[in-house]
Amino acid sequence: MSAPDAGLTELLAGRLNAPKVVNVDVALSKWVIFRLADNWYAFSAAHVREILTEPRVYFLPGCPSSMEGVINVRGDIESVLLLGNILRQDIGATPRPSHVLLSMGAGISSGVRVDRVEDVVDLPENLLQDAPHPVPGHLQDLVLGVIPYRDRLVTVLDIDRIFEDYRQGLL
Amino acid sequence: MAQTELAVACFRLGPFRLAIEASQVVRILADNDEDKACCADAEQTIAGLTVSSDEPVRIMVLRQGRYMRVNQPVTLVKLPLQTIYPLPALVAVRMQSANIKAFSLDEDCVTLLVVIP
User: Fold this and answer.
1) A76: distance to nearest CA of chain B, Å?
2) Averaged pLDDT, A99-110
3) CA distance B23 to B26
4) Based on C-alpha coordinates, what's the Rg of chain B?
5) B96/A169 Cβ within 8 A
6) Contact between B90 and A79 using a beta-carbon 8 Å cutoff
7) What is the distance between the alpha carbons of residues A69 and A78, in angstroms, rounded to a whole number?
8) Distance CA A119, CA A122 (A)
9) In 3-state terms, what secondary structure has residue A103?
10) pLDDT at A38 > cutoff 60
11) How many angstroms away from the CA of A100 is the closest CA of chain B?
12) Computed over its alpha carbons, how large is the radius of gyration of chain A?
């Protein structure tokens, strides 16, 4: 035979004696999470000024293949880099890229073409951790680490380093 | 009165449209044998772009004593200054040719602006 159910008085008393939930301030960082083909990446949102959907891109001849062209954003001209090309990622089988992240890094402003922005999300800063597996050589300097998002790890890219290396012709 | 336009000579190199300040152009010659002989050292390539031999060619004589072989049509136009933009930073450093300093974006038409030092 089971113990008799507690009455309301006992239940309330038990709740009052329960340990208090204490709110702890955790520093949050905002991330822009996006995809290139089946790979998930993130930029710190502090470096992303705007997310543009299918802006008109004007091709400029004489530029590297990783430079898609320029866009006119309300009278300001910005370059557009093909991130998949820079990361040497084969995106040939994917649908046409659809978003441009208007970004600022290393004191340089430029658009960055990605396939699709998945989310803009606040996550605790301390979730950023080292990549659990070796990063390919050409990406080593461009990767800050990984963050868990839903049930996957998202690779966080260093936009300062990408723009600076691109400026120097290293990418 | 403030300047609002820039006179340029527009030309093509293959499928691309380029322009140079009209004040830099002295003459525009036909691409006949006589002119070819005197302009044998004409620039063949600008900004990595080469004149198309499938299109009519003219020889542009520049003030600096240089020549450029360009594709027709060659036209004189006045570009509104508000349509002329400097190259964005990453384009400026990675552009193949240092002679391209700016471009014009007018009615969805891109024109590269050439500066010959």
Assistant:
1) 9
2) 96
3) 8
4) 14
5) no
6) yes
7) 9
8) 10
9) strand
10) yes
11) 16
12) 23
Taking the CA atoms of residue B92, residue B93, residue B96 and residue B100 in that order, the dihedral angle to the nearest 10 degrees is: 30
Which residue in the block uniquely carries the two structure tokens 């208090």? A20
Q: What is the 3-state secondary structure (H, E, C) of chain B?
A: CCCCEEEEEEEEECCEEEEEEHHHEEEEEECCHHHHHHCCCCECEECCEECCCCCCEEEEEECCCCEEEEEEEEEEEEEEHHHEEECCHHHHHHCCCCCEEEEEEECCEEEEEECCC
Separation CA A136–CA A102 (nearest Å) = 26
Task: For residue B67, give how far its alpha carbon lies from the nearest alpha carbon of chain A (Å).
Answer: 20
pTM: 0.83
Nearest to A62 among B47, B89, B93 (CB): B47
Cα–Cα dist A144/A158, whole Å: 6
> How many CB pairs below 8 A link A and B?
63
Q: What is the mean pLDDT of chain B?
A: 84
Interface residues on A facing B, Cβ-Cβ cutoff 8 A? 56, 58-64, 67, 70, 72, 77-79, 81, 108-110, 163, 166-167, 169
User: Starting at the edge strand that comes first in sequence, how are the strands of the sheet with A76-82 ordered?
Assistant: A48-53, A99-105, A108-114, A76-82, A67-73
Question: What mean pLDDT is predicted for residues A163-170?
Answer: 94
The number of C-alpha atoms within 13 Å of B28 and in the hemisphere containing its C-beta is: 17
Q: Which two tokens stand for residue B87?
A: 């190259």
Q: What's the confidence (pLDDT) of residue B38?
A: 57
